[in-house]
Amino acid sequence: MSTLLAFLFAGHLMVAAQPAENVSWEQLKERADSAFAEEEYGVAQGQYRKAIQAAKGASLSEQADLHNQLGRTLYEMDQLAEARKVYQRGLDLHSRAGTAETADAGAIWYNLGHVHGDMDQVKEAEFAYQRCAEIERAALGADSLELAVTLAQLGNYLANQKDYSKADQYLAEAAGIRKKQGDAQAGETLKDWAINRYRLSDYERAIALARDAIELSGEDEAVRGLSFNVIAMSHEARDEFGPAAANYRHALRLLRDALGFQDEQFKSVASNYVDLAIEHDPAWAVEAPE
């Protein structure tokens, strides 16, 4: 072998023998968090997996948090079955660490509820949200806003499953917490509760809750518009067609400005109003909304 070739060959071996980049799991997590924030989920997934591999010396609860973050990334990538497995590993790590009743473990249960819900696993989703609420109630207190978020999610999930009676207790508690805490989302939850009372044919209570939602929703014209729609539907159900039409019109004005003509919620309210106008034609133009 010539001297030049020997030199080049030796140099190649020296390059190949250089150690890989020494990066801590904390640095890998920072990279993954940044990628997740930028919605670069493929990159985030890879970095979280590397962080998990590098975090063997970290505490079990820290490893559980990495699994929670990886699960969130997989959920965003619509890899639901894999996300479920990762969340379950995270819960197992919390159990082994003795931190199964902490708010961090509750967060995994909450995220797992989303996965089960999207996989049409109704009982499993309900259990996951309930488990999260149970943990948050004990760990954070009965008036915590984190608990209110979970209860509202559980209530709306059950309402979407048409279990209105069970949904009602959770929406009521969530609304109560948010009102007590002066939370900006109080109007949103009150609106959802009003819709649920309407579905339970409790029209008087639905109207009262919708008015409360309007008062607390501030500048959120979408919430105000949908609340006026609840009032309108409740009046229509009681054959009070003039007030119903007036409130439909007011709802449409608000939703037009907040959401636009092409929004499905605007179209739904418009359909309600058109159906009412076809059947009844009193002098609604002079009616003032409530």
Describe this structure in words.
With 290 residues, this protein is an all-alpha fold. It has 14 helices and no strands. It has helices at 3-16, 25-37, 41-54, 60-76, 80-97, 103-118, 122-140, 145-160, 164-181, 186-199, 203-216, 221-237, 241-258, 264-279. α7 runs antiparallel to α8, α11 (203-216) packs antiparallel against α12 (221-237) and α12 runs antiparallel to α13. It is elongated and about 75 Å long. Residues 2-20 and 285-290 have low confidence and may be disordered.
Can you summarize this structure?
The chain has 290 residues and is an all-alpha fold. Helix content is 77%, strand content 0%.
Q: What is the helical fraction, as a range of percent?
A: over 70%
Calculate the mean pLDDT score and round it: 91
Largest sheet: none
Radius of gyration: 27 Å
Principal-axes geometry comes out as elongated
The percentage of residues in β strands lies in: under 5%
Report the span from N to C terminus.
96 Å
The tally of strands reads 0
Order of helices and strands: HHHHHHHHHHHHHH
Uncertain spans, ≥5 residues at pLDDT below 50? 2-20, 285-290
Q: Structural class of the secondary structure composition?
A: mainly alpha
Number of helices: 14
Layout of strands and helices, then pairs:
Blueprint: H1 3-16, H2 25-37, H3 41-54, H4 60-76, H5 80-97, H6 103-118, H7 122-140, H8 145-160, H9 164-181, H10 186-199, H11 203-216, H12 221-237, H13 241-258, H14 264-279
Helix pairs in contact: 2-3, 3-4, 4-5, 4-6, 5-6, 6-7, 7-8, 8-9, 9-10, 10-11, 10-12, 11-12, 12-13, 12-14, 13-14
